[in-house]
C-alpha cells in the first residue's frame, strides 16, 4: 500500500528530511506566535472558539466559529454575549448576558472598574445559568474569556468532527505529517 512512499522516503536522504522537519517546525512556531500575539492584542486567552452546543440557537449554531476580545476599560452590557469559564469547568460557555449588578470600587482614587456580578442565559434555554456556575450565584470578570465580536458560520464544525472521531483526527495528522516530510521543494 505504501511501497512507493517508503521508497521515496529512502531516496530523500537525511539532509532533505531534516530541512523538511525544520520547515514544518517553522510553520508551527509561526502559527503559535500569531495565536499568542492575537491573544495579547485582543486581551483574551482564546481569540477564537467553536460553539459546541445548540444552547444559543438561532443566534449561533453548533460548529460556528466565534471571534472574541475582552475590553480592558469597560464592563459588558446586558444583551452582549460573553464567553466564560466556570470553576472546575473544562469547556468555555457562550451565553447572553441577562443581568448586571455593580458593587462600587473600594478605592475611589483609582481608575479601577467596579466589581460587576453577571448572570447569563442561553438563548435556547428556559432557565438562567446559575446551575452551570458550580456553586457560584453570579459570574465575575475573572470568569470571562471574551466577548463575541463576530462569527463564521459552520467553519468550526471540523473541530467537532475531530473530537467526536479521534481516529480520524490521528489519521489526518499522520497523513499531513507524511505529506510534509515527503514533499519535494
UniProtKB/TrEMBL annotation:
The top EC class is hydrolase
Q: Which reaction does it catalyse?
A: Cleavage of hydrophobic, N-terminal signal or leader sequences from secreted and periplasmic proteins
Chief location category: endoplasmic reticulum
Mind listing the UniProt keywords for this protein, alphabetically?
A: Endoplasmic reticulum, Hydrolase, Membrane, Protease, Signal-anchor, Transmembrane, Transmembrane helix
Topology in the membrane? Single-pass type II membrane protein
The reply on keyword Hydrolase is yes
Give the transmembrane region(s).
Answer: 21-42
Family in the record: Belongs to the peptidase S26B family.
Q: List the PANTHER family.
A: SIGNAL PEPTIDASE COMPLEX CATALYTIC SUBUNIT SEC11
The UniProt subunit note reads as follows: Component of the signal peptidase complex (SPC) composed of a catalytic subunit SEC11 and three accessory subunits SPC1, SPC2 and SPC3. The complex induces a local thinning of the ER membrane which is used to measure the length of the signal peptide (SP) h-region of protein substrates. This ensures the selectivity of the complex towards h-regions shorter than 18-20 amino acids. SPC associates with the translocon complex.
The name this protein goes by in its record: Signal peptidase complex catalytic subunit SEC11
